[in-house]
Please model this.
Amino acid sequence: MRIHLNRVALAGLTLLSFFATAHAGSVVYTLTGTGAGGFFNGTAFTNQNFTITGTANNATVATLSGFPAVLLNTTTIQIGANPLATVLVSPYYIFNLGAFMPNLLAFSDATTNIGINSFQVLSGGTAWNLTSNFGPGVNSFSNSSGTSTNLGVLNINYSTATFTAVAGTSSSTPEPGSFGLAAFAVSGLLAVRLRRRKLVVRE
Model:
């Protein structure tokens, strides 16, 4: 019985370690700006604040279309007082396009077509590796984009924006399976603790 509980404890510790590291390496990329104009679901807007947020739960850099890129788990867009919208383009990435144009970063699909499903910013990021804290970088690039969201198609023009990345954070909710792993791990550790207490009382 003691051997069995020790195995449960070992499994618990292993799973706790996995649970702690499964969401490591996360990065939140944020592009915020003012004075934006365009159309959202066919409705015109002008001089609006906006925030585009992309979250990568595992910020592993790959090379797509010749550029460093990180796959985003979720990307949301806030335009003024409009409801928060979620980008439906999938897969969706954050790109370092410095080899194409110095200091150019972009939220984009795998094609990296400028102006299509893409939000760009010139922010001094030629050497950024996309997996660590950087910014803020101030934008001097005006962009127009047509992007599909759950609330309709967004076309936006902006010329004032700031880009930042914060590593080690994630706005996502752990999957139910992760909670199950954690519960199993804790139960194994508790079982060993109770077993040891019983042995002390008997002695």
Remarks:
- The chain has two domains: 2-21+175-202, 25-167.
- The two ends are 17 Å apart (CA to CA).
- Residues 1-24, 170-186 have pLDDT under 50 and may be disordered.
- The helical segments are 2-22, 176-202.
